[in-house]
Design brief:
There is one protein chain. This protein has six helices and no strands. The protein is mainly α. It has a single domain, classed as lambda repressor-like DNA-binding domains (434 Repressor (Amino-terminal Domain)), CATH 1.10.260.40. The longest helix is centred in the first third of the chain and has 18 residues. It is elongated, with a radius of gyration of 18 Å. It starts with 6 loop residues before the first helix and ends in a 13-residue tail after the last helix. About 10% of the residues are buried.
Length: about 100
């Protein structure tokens, strides 16, 4: 799969999303720290760099009320028809293919 976005773009988008969502909800960093269980310094670093652990992201999104949206984003798309569901049934990969050299 090809993408023009870089990991840095993703981190910047995450930082901006958390900051804009927090401000839209009129929540201070201190309040978010208490509600999420994530330290104030970690939140400040996240809003500047987008860098934190996955566990912290889940805690922060939970405190901001957007954890369900985040989980939905990571879920595979659902089939749009019965025919598509039948076609996809049984084709789910459990391991990657071996690479030949």
């Amino acid at each position: 799969m090809f993408s023009l976005s870089t990991p840095s773009d993703g981190l910047n988008a995450l930082a901006l999303y958390v900051r804009k969502t927090r401000l839209a909800l009129n929540i201070s960093i201190e309040e978010l720290a208490v509600n999420s269980g994530v330290s104030r310094s970690t939140l400040i670093r996240l809003e500047k760099t987008g860098v934190t652990s996955t566990e912290n992201i889940c805690r922060i999104f939970g405190a901001l009320g957007c954890l369900d949206k985040f989980i939905e984003t990571l879920s595979p798309p659902q089939p749009t028809s019965i025919a598509e569901a039948r076609r996809l049934a049984g084709n789910e990969r459990h391991k990657a293919r071996r690479k030949t050299v």
